[in-house]
Design goal:
alpha+beta; single chain; 3 helices; about 60% helix
Length: about 150
Amino acid sequence: MDLKISDLSAASTSIRADIARFQITVTDLNQRLTTVEDHIVAMPVRDTEMQSLQAKITDLEDRSRRDNVHFFGIPEHKEGSDIKAFLTNFLPELTGLDFSRHWSFKEPTELVLCVKQPLGDLTLLSHASSATNRPAKSSQRPDIRARTL
């Protein structure tokens, strides 16, 4: 009988140890679940903040590009070795406007002009489109992100 009691006591001790381990595991899982639920509750707020920041970035990118104009169809190598001199002479002749000297390249067949003093793209484009001495296949457009259009 003492042997049975000692076996039951050992089994009881083993079961209590298992229960204690399970309690620790359940407590840990409850803490993790609470953390996950808190993150899930905060997700709509973060999504709204992210959309707001994305809209702000888009607006800032468009504002930084608003004075840029792309010119297409200008024959390659027409500028020779000095692009600055070419643009200084060609663009005022093309548009009839006076420009500040601040230009950059994107691709060999596409020129991007950044106007330092805001003229408004429509003013520049209307002057350029009405010019009589521009190259036959040239065109221009405002520099706007594709997403904005």
